[in-house]
Design a protein that fits this description.
8% of the residues lie in helices and 40% in strands. It has two helices and ten strands, in the order E-E-H-E-E-E-E-E-E-H-E-E. Strand 9 and strand 10 form a beta hairpin. The protein is elongated and about 55 Å long.
Amino acid sequence: MEITPQCVVALTWTLKDTLGEVLDELSEPVEFLVGGGDLLTRIEQALQGHEPGDTLDLHLEPEEAFGDYDERLLYLEPRNLFPAEIEEGMTFEGLPAGATAVDAPRDLLYTVTEIYPEHVVLDGNHPLAGIALRLRVKVEAVREASEEEIGSGSTGSGFFKVAPSANGHTLH
């Protein structure tokens, strides 16, 4: 079966930056809904017409992946709004109650990038924002999507979900 919109593909891949550093490796197949919200548009376009066993090498510029890095998505919030066990690299859905950045998008994932005695720096950019990516993807299987998958716009795997955000996309 060829890949078409509204089908499910099982993929494996290796994701690298332009310097060749491996950022993510998916060695066991994971299913994604083509035509839903599971994959980046550029990946879906490249997959069209391919079949199980095919391998694709893609180069994604930031605007085709997770957008350019936006310094306006950096926020300094009072330390007392966060749990005592907070660590750099932790993520939060939205800003905490009592946040001082009233103009900040509330629906982003924010990553703690620095912790000071009185403040915490939060970054609303996707961790891969501003980075050109190299993706080697292998099509392991293709099947028809169920009505439930089409209706929800996802296979529900929760592994790789792309949702709109202020700077393009968010991966969770």
